Amino acid sequence: MAFVLEVPVNLLGHRQNLVSFSRSRGPSTYTSFSRKQRPLFSISATLNTPVQSLDEKHLARSNDVALPIMVNSCMGKMGQAVIEAGVSAGLHIVPASFGIETDAGKTVQVGGKDIQVHGPSDRETALASLVEEYPNMIVVDFTVPNAVNDNAELYCKSGVPFVIGTTGGDRDLLYKTVEDAKLYAVISPQMGKQVVAFLAAMEIMSKQFPGAFSGYRLQVMESHQATKLDASGTAKAVISCFQKLGVSFDLDEIQLIRDPRQQIEMVGVPEEHLNGHAFHMYNLTSPDGTVSFEFQHNVCGRSIYAEGAIDAALFLTKKIQSKADKKIYDMIDILREGSMR
To answer: What confidence score (pLDDT) does residue 228 get?
Structure first.
């Protein structure tokens, strides 16, 4: 294949004359130079380019475009926050999403993108078609607890790597399904970067100082928007660390606050964030009541989780491209690798 390349003379040996262009979210603007302003010389060459197979062309095309992500479910607040974060990060939002049967066939606009909702009855067919069109697609799942295992089974059957932040479901079965399929996935009940760091610190403490809080009494209170049906996965993870530290506690003892009035008056949730918040309080008291420790983390809104989910999708893509031996990751893996934007 023959070509002629015109290169400005001042690019050779004159580093100070180089012009740097930065990418912005707005329309790209470039400094305009006339031919008179930039002398050119020509380089001609002939390349022996091998003919690409159809698969190679398809792979090349997929590598040329932004990473495609499919966000399930786009009808939920969390799914919408992930889509908006994905758009801001320059990712390609696949115009399809899983939803409940009553929403099937609807088209919703999120982040300036039109997204078609597919119900349970046609999700397998829809996913197969999407995989064909977007071979390097990553699924980000923020659906509902009772859909966790069915969705994971479908992703594994279709060979689609996924990030799942949905809590609930049979977690042991979830991991077994992914392990058996040898599929890449990020599974984490908590996607918030800084909260993940707190969890990591708790995990380290529980491993290095087992039994340090033996005999202490633990009280846990967590407040989330009324639509969150189950106990927080983050609270469960923190409680697991306290149990390793010697504290006796049953998950049924978690005090779930879902009443808006209690959230404002008792917990201190700002009224504007009643529909999207996560306030967690852990109180440890010594057997004689003379010593107490309190741990608390409060989150208003969903952006912290959405940004973390996008980080997870980008991280997973790198692992796939490098053909990493490890297949299943969590957000602590991502934090340790420094893969947070």
So the answer is: 87
With CA atoms as reference, report the closest residue to 98 among 54, 158, 141, 34. 141
Query: Each residue of 17-34: pLDDT tens digit?
Result: 333 333 344 443 333 333
Burial level of 282, CB count in 10 A (0-12/13-18/19+)?
buried
Q: Residue 58, CB half-sphere, CA atoms under 13 Å: how many? A: 9
Q: How far apart are CA 238 and CA 219, in angstroms?
A: 12
Chain mean position to CA 133: 22
- Grade residue 47 by pLDDT with cuts at 50, 70 and 90: very low
Q: What is the dihedral of CA 170, 172, 174, 180, to 10 degrees?
A: -150
What are the CA-CA distances from residue 120 to residues 3, 72, 126, 134 (Å)? 52, 12, 10, 21
Q: Residue 98: how many CA atoms within 13 Å on its side-chain side?
A: 25
- Retrieve residue 238's tokens: 């923190």
Active-site amino acid positions: 224, 228
What are phi and psi for residue 74, nearest 5 degrees?
A: -75, -10
The per-residue pLDDT for range 171-198, each reduced to its tens digit, is 999 999 999 999 999 999 889 989 999 9
